[in-house]
Specification:
The chain has three helices and eight strands, in the order βαββββαβββα. The strands form three sheets. The chain has a four-stranded mixed sheet, covered by helices on one side. A two-stranded antiparallel ribbon has the order 3-4. Strands 7-8 form a two-stranded antiparallel ribbon. α1 packs antiparallel against α2. The longest helix has 18 residues. The chain is elongated and about 45 Å long.
């Protein structure tokens, strides 16, 4: 389940990106009740993209932003309590890691759902049901 963390240069202090990825990953697992799942955790990957200050915009004006995006099977993040809880927790994680300088209103979170059966999990295209069965083993 790839996490893409995109941020404007300077939004988080140098040396905090690995911790940000770890905390966001842990939050996702916690909210899906998969914290100690040995199948799920290694199937979470992350890409971090740091963009120059002159390449991120809001309202056509340069600004510091942070974007957290998950690409997941369609059964993830479907419960409203998970959406709200994860969103609040990750916003607070980023805000704290920034030294409380990154405005919460400039932290964006979204989820993209994959088409059932197209998810490559452990090297094999799997349906949601098959992924659920694999996760249940962990």
């Amino acid at each position: 389940m790839p996490l893409t963390l995109t941020l404007t240069e300077g939004a988080l202090p140098e040396g905090t990106l690995k911790l940000a990825v770890a905390k966001i990953t842990d939050s996702m697992l916690k909210w899906h009740e998969l914290t100690d799942n040995k199948v799920m955790k290694p199937n979470i990957t992350a890409i971090v993209q740091t963009l120059p200050k002159n390449s991120t915009f809001s309202g056509a004006e340069e600004f510091l932003g942070v974007w957290v995006e998950w690409k997941v099977p369609s059964f993830a993040f479907t419960e409203r309590a998970v959406q709200i809880g994860f969103g609040k927790e990750v916003t607070e994680i980023i805000h704290q890691l920034s030294g409380y300088r990154q405005p919460k209103e400039n932290i964006y979170i979204n989820v993209v759902h994959a088409v059932d059966g197209s998810w490559n999990f452990n090297g094999t295209a799997m349906t949601n049901e098959q992924i659920g069965q694999a996760i249940a083993l962990g």
